[in-house]
Amino acid sequence: MSGAGSTLEQLTITDMATTGLAIFTSDVSLVDVTILRSGMLGAQASTADGLSATGLLVADNNTEHFNRAPVSGGFKIHKSRGVEVSSSAFLRNRGNGLWFDESVYDMTVVGNDIIDSVGNGIVVELSAKALIVDNIVMGSTKDGVLVSDSGHVDIWNNTIAANDRGINIVQGNRRAADLTQPGHDSRQKLPDPTVTWITEDVSIGNNVLADGRGKCVLCVEDYSHERSAAQMDITSNGNVLQRTDATHPSWIVVWSRGVGNPAVYTSVAAFTAATGQDADSLALDAQPALAGTTLAPAVVSVESAIARPMPADIAAGARRSAGVRHLGAWD
C-alpha cells in the first residue's frame, strides 16, 4: 500500500511466499483484514504515520521458519508515528506477535489477543510513548510484553499468562544520540528528542501476571549497568503476581540496581519492603489467578481492593471510564 489515506477492508491474504501485506504511506486504515500462513511475516508497516488497524486476524505466519530477528512473525511496524492496533487477534505466529521497532512514536495497543507466539507477544523496541491496555497475551515462548530501549510506556489492565517472562523491561547499550546506530527515523530532526531509545517512565498497573515459565514474573534490567529501576522511573502497583508454586518461577521480581547484578526477590512482600512498589498488589503462590482467560473466584473477591483507579489518559485510550477499578483485560 502506497496511497496515502487508503482503506483496506474485508480482505483475506493467504500463503504468500514472504510478506502478506506491506504499508509504506500515511493514514492507512485496515479493517477486518485476515492474513494467514505467510512464509516470513504477516504484515509490515514503515513510515506509516496515522495507521489504524482494527479487526485483524494475523495467524500462522512464518511458515518457512525465518529467524525471529530481524523480522518474522505476525505484524512489525517501524519508523511510524500515531499508530493504533485494536480489537485484533495475533495467533500462533512463528516470531513476535506484534512488534514496534526502530523509532515508532505514539502507539496504542488495545483490546487484542496475542496467543501462542513463537517469540515475544508484544514488543516495544527503540521507540517511545506507548499505551498497552486491555490485551490478552498468552503462551509466548519468550516474553509476554517486552519493552526494550523505549520510554514513556503504560502497561495497564492486561492478562499476561503462560509466557516465559511476563513483563520484561530492559535497557541495552543503544542510544539514539549515536547517529551511527541503525534505526533512526530520517524524517525527523536527529537526534530525535521524542525518541531517545532510553528506557524510562514505565507504569505497570492492574495487570494479571500468571503461570510464568521463565525465571521471573516482573523483570527490570539495565544491561548497560547505568541506572536502577528507580532511576529509570519504573512504577508498579495494583497487579496480580501469581506463580504455580513458591519456586516456579524462582524469582517473583528482578529489579535493576544499576551497577552490578540486579536485585532479585522471591516474594512480593520482600519486593515491596525494599522498593515500595506493588504495595497494593496481590501475590498468589500455588493458587490460580485465572480460570481460562477470566479471573479466578479468589481474585474476583478482592478485585475492588487490589485494582487501582484507572487514570483518565489511560482510560481514554482503553475506551473506559476514568477511575474504573478492574484487574486484567475485560472479557
Topology:
Blueprint: E1 7-14, E2 19-23, E3 29-36, E4 41-46, E5 52-54, E6 57-59, E7 73-78, E8 81-86, E9 89-91, E10 96-101, E11 105-110, E12 113-115, E13 122-125, E14 128-133, E15 136-138, E16 145-148, E17 151-156, E18 159-161, E19 167-171, E20 200-205, E21 208-210, E22 216-222, E23 234-237, E24 240-243, E25 251-255, E26 263-265, H1 268-275, E27 282-285, E28 290-291, E29 294-295, H2 297-300, H3 303-306, H4 312-318
Parallel strand pairs: 1-3, 2-4, 3-5, 3-6, 4-7, 5-8, 6-9, 7-10, 8-11, 9-12, 10-13, 11-14, 12-15, 13-16, 14-17, 15-18, 16-19, 17-20, 18-21, 19-22, 20-23, 21-24, 22-25, 24-27
Antiparallel strand pairs: 25-26, 28-29
Name the assembly state: single chain
Overall mean pLDDT stands at 97
Tell me, briefly, the overall form. globular
Specify the structural class.
Answer: mainly beta
The major pleated sheet works out as: 17 strands, parallel
The percent range for helix content is under 10%
Q: What portion of the residues fall into strands of 2 or more residues?
A: 35-45%
- Residue ranges: pLDDT <50 for 5 or more in a row? none
Radius of gyration: 19 Å
Calculate the terminal CA-CA distance, rounded to whole Å: 34 Å
Number of strand segments: 29
Number of domains: 2
